[in-house]
C-alpha cells in the first residue's frame, strides 16, 4: 500500500514539474489563427493549474469551453479539443505558443497556423479606438449574392467598445460572437474548436452596415450587409421541412455505438412521444441542442413518457471512425439516450437517402417530433442556442408546450 502511495506521489511530482518547466503563464491568453488571406482570427482563452495539470477555457461571449486534455512534453504542447475532432500541436517559444491547429475531416486534415501570447485579454485591439456608433439591437443581414443569398437576423449588444451577439439563420446561429466596435468599424470572432469565424463591416450610420466580410476557416469568404430592423425575423422553423405526400410516419434501422441494431419500431418507443434528433458530432448548433436535451429536457420529460434518439451523420461512412467521434460526443455531454450511427454523411442528399420519406432536408440539426401513435407531428429545422437570448427562451417554451400537449393526448 505504501509503495502505491509513493508511486502516486512521484507521478504527481513529475506532472507538476512538467507543467512548471514549460513556463506556461497562468491567466488570459490571446490566440490567433491565420487565414489564407492573411487575416488574423483572434480569440481568448484562460489557462489555469488544476492539481498540477494545465486546463484551458476558450472564451466566446458568455461561453467557456473547457479543455482538459492538455499534454506537455518538454517544449511541446498538445491540446486535444473535447468536440469536433480537432487538436493543437504547439511548441513553447519565449512565452509564446506557436504551431498548428489541425481539424480532422474524416478523409483528410485541414490546418491553420496558430500563435498565442500570454497576459493578453484584448481580442482585436489592445487600445481600441472609441466607437462612433452603438449597434445594440436587431438587424436584418444579407449574406452572399444570387442563389447563395441568405437573409439572417443579427442580434448585437454593445457596452462601450465591446460587442457581443450572433447571427441567426434558418438552420441555426453562429453561436457566441465577441469583438468590438472601433471607430466606424465592426469586428467579431468566434472559435469553438471546430469552427473559426471573423466578421468585419463598415458602419455607415447607426442604421446601416456595409462592406461586410465573413472569413470562415482557412479560406472561406462571404460578403454581407445589414440594416437595423427591430422587426426582423426568420421563417417559422417548423415550416421548412416536411414528409412527402402520403407519409405520416418515418422508419429507420441503424446501429448504436455497440453495434446493435435499433429501430423506431422497437418496444422502448411504443406508445411514447419520440424526439428524433438528426445531428453530427461536427455540428455546433447540434451541441447546443444536445445541451438543452441533456441538461433540462430529458430529465423532465423522460419519466413522463418521452424518448429521444439521436441519428448521427458523420464525415465518414467508416463505422469505427464514426463510432470514435460519436462516443466522444456522448461522453462529453453524458448523453443518456441512444445515439445511432447512420452510415451516411452530411453531404447533400444523404440524409434524404437514409430517410426517404422526407420531402426536403435543410440542415443540421433537424428535429422530428413523433406522437404516441407513431405519427410525425412536427419537424423543426435548425436550433437557436442560448447565444440568441430571447429566441432560445421562446424555443424552449414552445417546445415544452408542444411536448405537454402530445403527452396529454
TrEMBL record:
<protein>
    <submittedName>
        <fullName>Peroxiredoxin</fullName>
    </submittedName>
</protein>
<dbReference type="Pfam" id="PF08534">
    <property type="entry name" value="Redoxin"/>
</dbReference>
<dbReference type="InterPro" id="IPR013740">
    <property type="entry name" value="Redoxin"/>
</dbReference>
<dbReference type="InterPro" id="IPR036249">
    <property type="entry name" value="Thioredoxin-like_sf"/>
</dbReference>
<dbReference type="InterPro" id="IPR050553">
    <property type="entry name" value="Thioredoxin_ResA/DsbE_sf"/>
</dbReference>
<dbReference type="InterPro" id="IPR013766">
    <property type="entry name" value="Thioredoxin_domain"/>
</dbReference>
<feature type="domain" description="Thioredoxin">
    <location>
        <begin position="243"/>
        <end position="401"/>
    </location>
</feature>
<dbReference type="GO" id="GO:0016491">
    <property type="term" value="F:oxidoreductase activity"/>
</dbReference>
Amino acid at each position: 500500500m505504501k509503495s502505491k502511495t509513493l508511486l502516486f506521489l512521484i507521478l504527481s511530482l513529475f506532472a507538476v514539474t512538467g507543467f512548471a518547466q514549460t513556463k506556461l503563464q497562468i491567466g488570459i491568453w490571446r490566440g490567433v489563427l491565420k487565414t489564407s488571406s492573411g487575416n488574423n482570427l483572434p480569440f481568448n482563452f484562460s489557462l489555469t493549474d488544476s492539481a498540477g495539470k494545465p486546463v484551458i477555457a476558450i472564451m466566446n461571449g458568455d461561453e467557456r469551453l473547457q479543455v482538459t486534455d492538455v499534454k506537455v512534453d518538454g517544449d511541446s504542447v498538445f491540446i486535444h479539443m473535447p468536440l469536433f475532432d480537432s487538436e493543437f500541436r504547439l511548441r513553447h517559444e519565449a512565452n509564446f505558443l506557436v504551431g498548428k491547429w489541425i481539424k480532422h475531416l474524416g478523409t483528410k486534415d485541414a490546418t491553420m497556423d496558430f500563435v498565442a501570447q500570454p497576459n493578453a485579454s484584448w481580442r482585436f485591439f489592445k487600445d481600441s479606438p472609441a466607437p462612433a456608433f452603438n449597434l445594440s439591437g436587431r438587424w436584418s443581414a444579407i449574406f452572399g449574392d444570387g442563389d447563395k443569398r441568405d437573409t439572417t437576423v443579427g442580434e448585437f449588444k454593445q457596452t462601450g467598445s465591446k460587442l457581443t451577439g450572433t447571427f441567426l439563420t434558418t438552420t441555426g446561429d453562429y453561436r457566441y460572437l465577441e469583438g468590438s466596435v472601433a471607430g466606424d468599424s465592426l469586428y467579431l470572432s468566434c472559435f469553438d474548436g471546430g469552427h473559426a469565424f471573423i466578421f468585419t463591416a463598415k458602419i455607415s450610420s447607426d442604421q446601416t452596415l456595409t462592406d461586410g466580410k465573413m472569413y470562415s476557416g482557412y479560406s472561406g469568404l462571404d460578403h454581407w450587409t445589414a440594416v437595423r430592423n427591430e422587426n426582423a425575423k426568420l421563417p417559422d422553423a417548423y415550416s421548412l421541412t416536411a414528409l412527402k405526400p402520403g407519409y405520416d410516419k418515418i422508419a429507420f434501422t441503424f446501429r448504436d455505438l455497440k453495434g446493435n441494431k435499433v429501430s423506431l419500431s422497437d418496444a422502448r418507443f411504443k406508445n411514447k412521444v419520440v424526439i428524433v434528433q438528426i445531428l453530427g458530432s461536427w455540428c455546433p448548433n447540434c451541441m447546443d441542442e444536445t445541451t438543452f436535451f441533456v441538461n433540462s429536457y430529458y430529465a423532465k420529460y423522460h419519466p413522463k413518457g418521452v424518448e429521444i434518439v439521436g441519428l448521427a451523420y458523420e464525415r465518414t461512412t467508416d463505422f469505427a471512425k464514426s463510432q470514435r467521434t460519436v462516443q466522444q460526443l456522448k461522453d462529453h455531454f453524458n448523453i443518456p439516450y441512444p445515439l445511432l450511427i447512420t452510415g451516411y454523411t452530411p453531404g447533400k442528399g444523404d440524409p434524404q437517402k437514409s430517410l426517404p420519406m422526407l420531402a426536403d432536408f435543410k440542415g443540421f440539426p433537424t428535429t422530428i417530433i413523433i406522437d404516441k401513435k407513431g405519427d410525425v407531428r412536427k419537424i423543426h429545422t435548425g436550433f437557436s442556442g442560448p447565444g440568441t437570448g430571447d429566441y432560445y427562451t421562446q424555443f424552449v417554451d414552445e417546445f415544452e408546450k408542444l411536448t405537454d400537449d402530445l403527452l396529454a393526448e
